[in-house]
């Protein structure tokens, strides 16, 4: 259920807030990524796509996999999880957890990977979905006495509704996971709702997800919920909108002339697949831009405030 915001809009008093600044593009042919702090170093967890998924740029890998990449040097720190896709990561108490579906472009079975050194990974199957559901993006946060995983699903199952839809699983230990009733706990079967990222702040689960705007525009919206049943839509949506600042390049020396030309002339109708972390009192946001049809680029943005402040700033 989605709360009606019309009455709120009639009487709302909304002050100024800090702005979100786009910093620029860091990579071509990359979409799903999570920024994370590991032993005081900023890393990027990334799904390295396979040719099967169909991304532009001459990708010839038979199977995709997960990797952790040093955000300062772009060096690969760790690679693992061959033939997995649409992953996310979560760090706690010196352990790194990664989650994602089996297969090169979504699947029915979700695996977890756990490591204390980013070299040796313990893998296990944690969730299995019905035949008529396919799993895509996911995100994990620590909530009130439990961990919550938001999961993007598609397919013909009634829980999907208007693809795509976000459903939820819970865990007490990040190892054993149980699905919440997909018909009761979901957002939203009435609209295109994809690539969620979820966080928990002061009694609310905040979730950023992609929605479809008119004329093939895709933009991230933020909602929040206390119970993962009834959701409130942020009054200051969308979070960002495609514009020419997406095409700034942070390190142009890392791209060839052909790549820079490809980037400069790409259609940009999409800001999607947001993920975020807090570093030095600021909120670092990683997102994708492009045409949602294969031309995709990874970029960074920054909010000059804590993650809690950023998430709350979209609501009254």
Tell me about this structure:
The chain starts with 5 loop residues before the first helix and ends with a helix. The model has no long low-confidence stretch (mean pLDDT 93). The chain is mainly β and 316 residues long. Strand 17 and strand 18 (232-233) form a beta hairpin. The strands form 5 sheets. Strands 10, 11, 12, 13 and 14 form a 5-stranded antiparallel sheet that branches. Strands 1-21-20-19 form a 4-stranded antiparallel sheet, with no helix packed on it. The protein has a 4-stranded antiparallel sheet with strand order 2-3-4-5, with no helix packed on it. The radius of gyration is 19 Å and the shape is globular. It is built from 3 helices and 21 strands.
Annotation field: number of helices: 3
- Oligomeric status: single chain
Outline the low-pLDDT stretches: none
Number of DSSP strands?
21
Shape: globular
SS-based class: mainly beta
Descriptive keywords:
316 residues; globular; four-stranded antiparallel sheet; mainly beta; five-stranded antiparallel sheet; 6% helix
Concise synopsis of the structure shown:
With 316 residues, this protein is mostly beta strands. The protein has 3 helices and 21 strands. The model has no long low-confidence stretch (mean pLDDT 93).
Walk me through the topology.
Elements lengths: L5 H6 L8 E9 L4 E6 L2 E8 L16 E6 L5 E5 L7 E5 L2 E7 L7 E7 L6 E7 L4 E10 L4 E9 L9 E7 L5 E3 L6 E2 L6 E8 L2 E10 L3 E9 L6 E2 L23 H8 L5 E10 L2 E9 L5 E8 L3 H6 L4
Antiparallel strand pairs: 1-21, 2-3, 3-4, 4-5, 6-7, 7-8, 8-9, 10-11, 11-12, 12-13, 12-14, 15-16, 16-17, 17-18, 19-20, 20-21
């Amino acid at each position: 259920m989605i709360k009606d915001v019309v009455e709120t809009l009639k009487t709302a008093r909304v002050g100024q807030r800090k702005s979100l600044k786009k910093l620029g593009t860091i990579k071509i042919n990359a979409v799903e990524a999570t920024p994370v702090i590991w032993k005081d170093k900023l890393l990027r967890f990334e799904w390295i796509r396979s040719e099967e998924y169909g991304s532009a740029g001459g990708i010839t890998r038979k199977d995709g996999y997960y990797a952790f990449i040093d955000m300062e040097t772009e060096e690969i720190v760790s690679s693992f999880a061959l033939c997995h896709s649409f992953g996310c990561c979560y760090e706690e108490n010196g352990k790194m957890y990664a989650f994602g579906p089996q297969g090169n472009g979504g699947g029915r079975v979700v695996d977890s990977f756990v490591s204390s050194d980013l070299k040796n990974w313990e893998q296990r199957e944690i969730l299995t979905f019905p035949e008529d559901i396919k799993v895509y993006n996911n995100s994990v946060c620590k909530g009130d006495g439990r961990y919550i995983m938001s999961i993007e699903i598609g397919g013909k199952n009634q829980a999907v509704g208007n693809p795509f839809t976000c459903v939820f699983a819970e865990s007490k230990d990040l190892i054993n996971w149980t699905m919440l009733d997909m018909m009761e706990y979901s957002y939203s079967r009435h609209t295109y709702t994809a690539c969620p990222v979820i966080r928990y702040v002061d009694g609310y689960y905040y979730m950023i997800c992609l929605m479809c705007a008119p004329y093939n525009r895709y933009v991230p919206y933020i909602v929040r919920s206390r119970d993962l049943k009834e959701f409130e839509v942020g009054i200051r949506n969308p979070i960002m909108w495609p514009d020419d600042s997406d095409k700034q390049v942070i390190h142009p020396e890392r791209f060839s002339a052909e790549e820079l030309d490809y980037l400069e002339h790409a259609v940009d109708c999409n800001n999607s697949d947001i993920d975020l972390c807090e570093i030095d009192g600021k909120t670092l946001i990683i997102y994708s831009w492009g045409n949602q049809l294969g031309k995709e680029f990874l970029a960074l943005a920054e909010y000059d405030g804590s993650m809690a402040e950023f998430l709350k700033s979209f609501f009254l």
